[in-house]
Structures are given as structure tokens and as C-alpha cells.
Amino acid sequence: MKYTRFCRSLLSTPALAVERYAKSHRSGADIAMVDLEDSVPPARKAEARALAEEFFALPTTRLARSAVRINTVAGPDGLRDLLALTRYAVKPELVLIPMAESPRDVEIVAGALAADCPATEYLAVVETPRGIENAHAIALAGHRLRGLVFGSADYAFAVGARLGWEALAPARARVVNAARAAGLEVLDAPLFEVADLAGLRREAGLARDLGFSGKIAVHPRQLPSINQAFSPDQELLDRARRVVEAGLQNGRSVTVVDGVMVGMPFFEAALRLVEQFDPPTTPTDPTTATDPTHQPDQPVPAVPGPTGARADSAEKEPS
Predict the structure, then answer these.
(1) Closest C-alpha to 125, from 151, 106, 144
(2) Are 56 and 91 in contact (CB under 8 A)?
(3) Which DSSP string corresponds to 124-156?
(4) How far is Cα 182 from Cα 141, in angstroms, rounded to an integer?
(5) Which of 121, 170, 183, 225 could serve as a FRET partner for 6 with CA atoms 20 to 30 Å apart?
(6) What letter would DSSP give residue 218?
């Protein structure tokens, strides 16, 4: 399993719910996102655009990333959203591109934001039959695309499928494979039954085992279960430290740790795990290339360790 601090969890706040902005940043989600799309009625899109700028001006936790979900670039509101982002004083770190159906959707966003938002990265939401068919091509759309997101609700509605995990497992697998083949992260759709924490833990475990990097939360109370599911437990961390220590001692050649023969792939995976989830005890190896998203003094690769929800934030998510 490829554990990562980049996107174990994403919590969305409707752009019109300004009173929830600060709580969203403190919620414990890896990615705190303000939503301009489905949670905003058509008549209030312009108002939402103007209000959302405040979301990015607020302080966030050191490891959390701020994001915005724009409207589809196939319509005028999506294009207006992109123009508004270029004028924000503080730029979003991530832009979620909904209804992505071809590489062109990502290219339009990248082209519009390149000059004014050069550090902004993207997540493409794959949530239509055409998007599933083109998932691999979408995943290769650009070097600033960091991941794919599976949107279950829109996809299930489009194909007439049930919303449960089993019915959508084939589509999920295609999105995971497309993302991983391109070296990207991949987020699973939310469980919409907010009170069903047992069901959430089951789905999060299935998503993790299928290869997802994380899962969307529709309510802050879901964050502890999601973050825990996509974080290594203490036993795994302890073993990773032993692998790293053994690797550093023997020049990263093949060795035996806990009775298991380990080589370079094991060492690199263990080092990544320790660097991201147990920084204080990470051995120093200047010859090792670390995760480019791991910048201790900046609010990058989102999130705290298996953290708890500490906010009462938004109900909207990429669907």
C-alpha cells in the first residue's frame, strides 16, 4: 500500500458558507476545499466566486492544503471561475476539475491559470461514462495534475447503477489503474450516509486495499475514520524504521530484517513511510531522494497523522 500525506482525506465547504471556512482549515482534512460547483445554486455563482477568495486568505494548518472545486469548464461558469482565480490575492494550491472527460479539460484549466497561478496543481474528477473510458488519457494530461478523483454519484446516475461499493467496483478499479499507471494519487468517492461510521470504515478499507490514496468526507465526523484507514499503524511504522536503519547501515544493499529479505524497493518504500508519518525519528540519508511534496516548513502534502475531526464544516463533496 502506498501511504501518503498528500490526500488521505478531502473535506469540502460550500463557497456560500463563509462561517465554516476557518473550521474547514482546522478540520484535520489533508485537503480543505471550497466548492463553487454543485453546492452553489446557479443564481448565486458570481456571489460564491467573490466570497471564496477569503477562504485562501485564512491561516491553515502546516500540513493542510487549500483547494477549490470549480464548475465544469464545458460551461461559462467554469470559465468565469478560472478568471476569478487569477485575480485572487492568495492562490489555491489545488483546483479540482469536475466532469473531466478528456485531457482537454485539464489543458484548458492549465492554460488559463499558468501565468497567474504557476504553483497551482490539479485534481481531475472522473465521474461520467466518457470520463471512465478516457481515464488513462486524462491522467496523462499534464505535469501539474496530481491525481484523479472518482465521483460515484454522477457516474451511478449516468449508467443507472446502484451507488453501493460492489456495483461501482469495476469503475473504481479503472480510475485507480489509470492514476497509478501515470504515477498519480487517487481519491475515492464519499460514503453519503454520514452516521454510518462502520460502513465508512469498511468502504475506506476496501478503497485502500484497491489502491486509492484516500477518500472524500461529506462531514467532519468522517475524517478520523478516513485518516486512520489511509495511515500506517504503529507496527508498520516500527518495521519501516527497522528497514531504514538496516538499509543505511549496509549502504542500502540487500539485507534481512525480521527474517525477511529486503532490498532497494523495500528501503525506498520504508523511508517514504517514515519521512511522511514519523518525521522526528527519520534517519538522515543525504543520498536519498525524498518525496518532492514533503516540505516541512510549508503547507504541502496535506494532513496530519491519523487525525480527528475538529470542525463542523461543509456537507458538499466532489460527487
Answers:
(1) 151
(2) yes
(3) EEE-SHHHHHTHHHHHTS-TTEEEEEE-HHHHH
(4) 10
(5) 170
(6) S
What is the distance between the alpha carbons of residues 210 and 206, in angstroms, rounded to a whole number?
6
pLDDT per residue as tens digits for the range 256-294: 878 777 777 777 778 877 877 765 543 443 333 333 333
How far is residue 290's CA from residue 21's CA, in Å, rounded to a whole number?
Answer: 32
* Contact between residue 189 and residue 216 where contact means Cβ atoms under 8 Å apart: yes
Distant-in-sequence, close-in-space partners of 8: CB < 8 Å, separation ≥ 6: 30, 213, 214, 215, 226, 227, 229, 230, 231, 302, 303
**Residue 35 corresponds to which amino acid?**
D
**Separation CA 76–CA 4 (nearest Å):** 35
Q: What is the pTM (predicted TM-score) of this model?
A: 0.80
Residue identified by cell 477569503 is 54
3-state SS, residue 297: coil
What pLDDT was estimated at residue 289? 34
Of the candidates 225, 76, 57, 160, the residue with the CA atom closest to the CA atom of residue 68? 57
Kindly give the pairing relationship between strand 255-257 and strand 214-217: unpaired
- CA-nearest of 11, 8, 7 to 221 is 11
What are the cell numbers at 65?
A: 492544503
First to last CA, the chain: 25
Residue 61 CB partners (closer than 8 Å, separation 6+): 25, 26, 299, 304
How crowded is residue 163: how many other Cβ atoms within 10 Å of its Cβ? Answer: 14
pLDDT digits (tens, 9 = 90+) for 71-118: 999 999 999 999 999 999 999 999 999 999 999 999 999 999 999 999
